[in-house]
Design brief:
The protein is globular. The protein has helices at about 40-45, 65-70, 70-75, 90-100, 105-120, 135-145, 165-180, 190-195, 215-220, 235-240, 275-285, and strands at about 5-10, 15-25, 30-35, 55-60, 65, 75-80, 155, 185-190, 200-205, 210-215, 225-230, 245-250, 255-260, 270. A hairpin with a 4-residue loop joins β12 and β13 (about 255-260). The strands form three sheets. A six-stranded mixed sheet has the order 6-7-8-3-9-10, sandwiched between helices. A four-stranded antiparallel sheet has the order 2-1-4-5. Strands 12-13-11-14 form a four-stranded antiparallel sheet. Helices cover about 30% and strands about 30% of the residues. It has two domains: about 5-220, 3-Layer(aba) Sandwich (Rossmann fold), CATH 3.40.50.300; about 225-275. It is an alpha/beta fold and about 290 residues long. α4 crosses α5 (about 105-120). InterPro entries: AAA+_ATPase, ABC_transporter-like_ATP-bd, ABC_transporter-like_CS, P-loop_NTPase. Belongs to the ABC transporter superfamily. It comes from Merdimonas faecis. GO terms for molecular function: ATP binding; ATP hydrolysis activity. This is ABC transporter ATP-binding protein.
């Protein structure tokens, strides 16, 4: 099982959104990291067969997805950033409608829907109209519809947007189990969504893949660039201007602990720290102030 993206490029009138991207995806969870506007959604829409590339190709097990057609859609699940539904649909109606589009029999659809409603804690709102759901609940319904046909290939675009921390943890655990013999590609700028479950990561910036590998492999480039130090709270404003600070924690007696990124230690009595994926993200995307 393999999804091969070859030199994929997408140009719009005044912008090259994706620029010669090549990736070979095998079973497991793949994290696609990047700031908003990096080209992640455009890349995923092409991988889903919803957007025709300007150049390049997407192949599933060696066959272009355009040639596979329905056979690809039968083994494919997709959650876009935003998905539409008829206003009168209840949660069950919506999932039943999507199941019919995916070719599930009535018996298969009912069994699968009932199971997913339980998995995503939606059983109590099965008769509630979609328009009346909270953002987090709509997101859970969206994830459920992507799993209805038990896909071999699953693409999720910002899947945990709107989910609370507990829901995000349950979702990550579910994906980790699901991806044992399937390909799962998750696009996100929330680093913790993929840090502990992704077998591979690709980092996208300005339409290109700028780094690829396991979390451990990617973090090697951050060795010697992550530091911590204790500084007086009244001096903090002075350091904030010239130091790329990742986090600040209040300690005792007017002292704060600062975790920061730099090529060499710049604060007094700094100690080297083990890098995390969040550190790499902020190093590559310094303008991104919030990483959850």
């Amino acid at each position: 099982m393999e999804l091969c993206i070859r030199n994929l490029t997408k140009e719009f009138r005044d912008k090259r959104a994706v620029d010669q991207v090549s990736l070979t995806l095998t079973p497991g969870v793949w994290g696609l990291l990047g700031a908003n506007g990096a080209g992640k959604t455009t890349l995923m829409r092409m991988a889903a067969g919803l957007l025709v590339p300007t150049k390049g190709s997407v192949e599933y097990d060696g066959i272009p997805i355009g040639v596979l057609g329905r056979r690809y859609r039968d083994v494919f699940g997709y959650l876009p950033q935003e998905f539409g539904f008829y206003p009168e649909f209840t949660v069950y109606d919506y999932l039943d409608y999507v199941a019919a589009l995916k070719g599930l029999s009535r018996k298969e659809a009912k069994e699968k829907i009932d199971h997913l409603l339980e998995v995503f804690s939606l059983a109590d709102v099965r008769k509630k109209k979609m328009v009346k759901l909270s953002g987090g609940m709509k997101r859970r319904v969206g994830i459920a519809q992507a799993l209805l046909n038990d896909p071999e290939m699953l693409i999720l675009d910002e899947p945990t947007s709107g989910l609370d921390p507990g829901e995000r943890v349950r979702f990550r655990n579910l994906l980790s189990e699901f991806a044992a013999d399937r390909i799962v590609l998750i696009s996100t700028h929330i680093v913790s969504d993929v840090e502990y479950i992704a077998s591979q990561n690709a980092v996208m910036k300005e339409g290109r893949i700028i780094a690829e590998g396991t979390t451990e492999e990617l973090l090697r480039q951050m060795n010697g660039k992550v530091w911590s130090a204790f500084v007086p709270e009244y001096d903090l404003h002075k350091y904030e201007q010239g130091v790329r600070i990742v986090s600040i924690r209040n300690e005792d007696a007017g002292v704060v602990s600062v975790r920061y990124l730099a090529e060499r230690p710049v604060l007094p009595e700094s100690e080297a720290k083990e890098p995390r994926l969040e550190d790499l993200y902020l190093w590559l995307f310094p303008q991104e102030k919030e990483v959850q």
